[in-house]
Amino acid sequence: MTPRLPPKLLYGGDYNPEQWPESVWLEDVRLMRAAGVNIVSLGIFSWARLQPSEKRFDFGWLDRVMDLLAKNGISVCLATATASPPPWLTRKYPGVLPVTADGVTLQVGSRQQYSPSSPVYKKFAAALVRKLAQRYRRHSALASWHINNEYACHLPECHNADSTRAFRAWLRAKYRTLAALNDAWGTAFWSQAYGDWAEIFTPRRAPYHCNPTQCLDFKRFTSDAFLALYRMEAAILRAATPAIPLTTNFMGFFKPLDYRAWAPEIDYVAWDSYPDPVDEAAARHAGAVGHDLMRSLKPGRPFVLMEQAPSAVNWRSVNLPKRPGIMRLQSLQTVARGGDGVMFFQWRASKAGAEKFHSGLLPHVPPKQSRVFAEVTALGAELKKLTPVAGSLVRNRVAIAFDWHAWWAVELESKPGRIDYAAWAQSLHRWFYQKNIGVDFVHPGAELAGYDLVVAPALYLLTKQAAANLTAFTARGGTLLATYFSGIVDEHEHIVLGGYPALLRQALGLWVEEWAPYPDGRTNGVRLGGRKFTCDHWCDLLHLEGAKPLATYTGDFFAGRPAVTRHRHGRGTAYYLGTRLDAAGLDALLLRVTKTAGVKAPLRAPAGVEITRRDAKRGQFLFALNHTGRPARISLGKYRGTNLLTGRSTARTLTLAPLDAAVIQLKR
Ligand code: GAL
User: Fold this and answer.
1) Rounded to 5, what percent of the chain is helix, strand, coil?
2) Contacts of 632 (CB under 8 A, 6+ apart)
3) Ligand 1, CB within 6 Å, residue ranges
4) Strand spans (E) along 308-431
5) Whose CA is nearest to atom 12 of ligand 1?
6) C-alpha distances in angstroms, 373 versus 68, 174, 367, 531, 654?
7) What is the pLDDT of residue 517?
8) Which of 45, 80, 150 to mutate to test the pocket of ligand 1 (most atoms within 8 A of CB)?
9) Tens digit of pLDDT for each residue in 165-188?
10) Using CA atoms, how far apart are residues 362 and 350, in angstroms rounded to an integer?
11) Most Cβ neighbours (<10 Å): which of 191, 208, 233, 492?
12) Which of 315, 346, 355, 357 should be mutated for ligand 1, with most atoms under 8 A from CB?
């Protein structure tokens, strides 16, 4: 059995008591209790304090904080403190420092200054984790381990000597022979053939385009190298505390790490979400799509929002605060989309250091006079009322096929046009979000039996197995919507010949002869269902072999040729979108696609009102969030129950004030 978190909604944030005199700690816990805080992430950047020199450890202060928190009923998500090595370590062992593709060594004085492949870093990190595990394994405050912090956040790759050695070892394990590597990397091109493993380097700055398969393998290697660090710490903690859940904080659509490979190793997904408050509509979608991606990594288990900002951050050039009500609504959105924890960076706003202008739950001003702290306290009380929701799950019938390897590959250099893979997936997700149709993100090769509709945006790199999986899904009765530049290369980034997208030809009933990627600002038109829409970015030139045209281009040398198609395959239907449609065109198409698939929202709601459902054996919960500045009236249809936030039974119509929300526990 995978260890679990306590069955409640977690509320709290990063707690950095080492930045404050001990006299402040008492006030901290008093205010935490007043705010309803029930958990803190402790010690994330404490390495230098815990180990002031190579041979000296100091756990006394941490013992006192742990005891104080336990005494006050506050749980601890205890960090392993390995995210920022202390200065003495890299002074004595400078080889630990990471190096960029340009050969620049990243120095001490910030954080994350270690190579993921450094044996010295690993040795010291493991020793620290062992000590922490031994010391706190039986502590009553310990509820979870927080391994490292945001792996690879500031350091997406490293090219130092340790990384070079480790990359070679990774390649040897993968390819066994240089002949296999030369073949996979296509080194017959540009005289790149390798005759010795020692000739191979990480893809450092070179005169011109780097070998794409080398670059792709380096991304895989880097994700694996960080995962190996996580595994090393996890093994130590697992052995010492088998019943305590382990996690590390993910970062949503974070390209350097293939979180899908990480997900089986963590006990629950935790992630950090920092949408820019400048554009509230964009921020609420960014939150939603991030939650959906993160939740999907571990279906069957609620996730925890490990960090969000109570108000402003400090790291954009201009940092707008969240206006009143937004932090609450974003927190409720987290729960609405499957979160069992709402946590923040950080508890008390720092007085010194690079993050002193980052908002905290407890700002610099006296708490009694703080608008933010008042909202924090109110939210703590509300989350307590939502305790029955904990453990319930979000279940969806629509999935977006999303794969980190496809992401890495499609964004390598020297492509026909520029595709922002995550943005394209997110823009398709946005349509479903606005319609309140729930979406999961899945690997294209994953079990798809639970879904009626799978959307595959620019699935450029596609394995035989994944292509067969999507084809079988369609044949069995599913609805597939694939878009341009899907199924072009195999796992080595070699073109699959035989007419693009060779492996999906059968399902889609078409092949692509050429494409016309457009520069920004250039457009074409399509005629779809008797209406005209604009399209841009990319135009595929299709040949149909069974598919029926739904839309045709109105301009360019391929005017009159199909742009969007529909194909009956087995018992299902495969749609193909060969271009990027404007909002109205996409709406027309997706209305049709979702009708074919038979998927719809739980109920109709005015624009800007977010509706979701969470289900458990013991009950079902309907969430309604009014993101607009106007009161919203929602006809609840068959849904009746009690609004957990007000304690009142619902009527046929629910009226929500601007930025207000309801969480309705449904009648059985
Ligand atoms: C996160 C990080 C925190 C803090 C926060 C500020 O990326 O994990 O330690 O720096 O950002 O927004």
Assistant:
1) 35, 25, 45
2) 605, 606, 608, 609, 626, 655, 656
3) 149-150, 153, 272, 274, 307, 309, 313, 345, 355, 358
4) 339-344, 398-401
5) 313
6) 22, 53, 6, 52, 29
7) 98
8) 150
9) 999 999 999 999 999 999 999 999
10) 10
11) 233
12) 355
Determine which one of 233, 307, 382, 493 is catalytic.
307
Atom of ligand 1 nearest to the CA of 150: 8
Q: Which amino acid is at 436?
A: N
Phi-psi region for residue 405, left (φ > 0), alpha (ψ -120 to 50) or beta? alpha
The active-site residue out of 150, 382, 493, 610 is 150
Q: Which atom of ligand 1 is nearest to the CA of 309?
A: 12
Cα-to-centroid distance, 69 and ligand 1 (Å): 23
As averages over each run of 10 residues, the pLDDT of the chain (668 residues) reads: 92 98 98 98 98 98 98 98 98 98 98 98 98 98 98 98 98 98 98 98 97 98 98 98 98 98 98 98 98 97 98 98 98 98 98 98 98 98 98 98 98 97 98 98 98 98 98 98 98 97 98 98 97 98 98 98 98 98 98 98 96 94 98 95 98 97 94
Strand-pairing partners, residue 146, are 79, 247
Distances (CA, A) of 328 to 70, 306, 333, 394, 503: 27, 15, 9, 20, 47
- Atom number of ligand 1 nearest to Cα 274: 12
Q: How far is the CA of 217 from the centre of ligand 1 (A)?
A: 29
584 phi and psi angles, rounded to 5 deg: -65, -40
pLDDT number for residue 1: 81
Give the containing element (helix H, strand E) for 402: none
**Smallest CA separation from ligand 1 atom 9, residue:** 345
pLDDT value at residue 618: 86
Q: Of all atoms in ligand 1, which is nearest to the CA of residue 149? A: 8
Based on the residue annotation, tell me whether 493 is a catalytic residue of this protein: no
Q: Would residue 545 show up in a list of annotated catalytic residues for this protein?
A: no
Using DSSP bridges, classify how beta strands 270-272 and 303-307 pair: parallel, antiparallel or unpaired: parallel
Nearest alpha carbon, ligand 1 atom 4: 345
Ligand 1 atom showing the smallest separation from residue 251 Cα: 7
- Expressed in angstroms and rounded, the spacing between residue 272 Cα and the centre of ligand 1 is 8
Q: What is the pLDDT of residue 204?
A: 98
Q: How far is the CA of 345 from the centre of ligand 1 (A)?
A: 6
Structure letter (DSSP) for residue 576: E
Domain 398-597 has CATH 3.40.50.880: yes
Q: Give pLDDT, residue 668.
A: 79
Nearest CA to ligand 1 atom 5: 345
Q: How far is the CA of 305 from the centre of ligand 1 (A)?
A: 13
The pair of three-digit structure tokens given for residue 155, joined into one six-digit string: 């350091």
User: Which tokens sit at 483?
Assistant: 């878009």
Superfamily covering domain 609-666: Golgi alpha-mannosidase II (2.60.40.1180)
Q: Please report how many Cα atoms fall inside a 13 Å half-sphere around the Cα of residue 34, on the Cβ side.
A: 15
- Ligand 1 centroid vs 267 CA: distance in angstroms? 22
Residues 6+ apart with CB under 8 A from 99: 105, 106, 115, 158, 159, 160, 163
pLDDT of residue 361: 98
Task: Say which residues have a Cβ less than 8 Å from residue 510's Cβ, sequence separation at least 6.
Answer: 542, 543, 544, 545, 546, 547, 562, 565, 567, 576
What does residue 102 show for φ and ψ, rounded to 5 degrees? -85, 0
d(C-alpha 444, C-alpha 442), whole Å = 6
User: Domain locations in the chain?
Assistant: 398-597, 609-666
